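Cross-check.
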Amino acid sequence: MGKLKITQVKSVIDRTKRQKATMVALGLTRINHSVVHETRPEILGMIKKIEHLVRIEEVTD
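Predicted model, tokenized:
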């Protein structure tokens, strides 16, 4: 499986508790902060819920 680089591009102010919790669960804490996760169904589902707040890039090793 591949890896995804997830970067927060918008603020979580005025977002639902569920969206805020998803951002924290992914490890995103501030704008322009990036994390790398394995491409798994759980991660893809989390990204789907907050895709309007993040930028996704595939990482090639």
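Residues 33 and 50 are 15 Å apart (CA to CA). DSSP finds two helices and three strands in the chain. Passed to J.P. for a second look.
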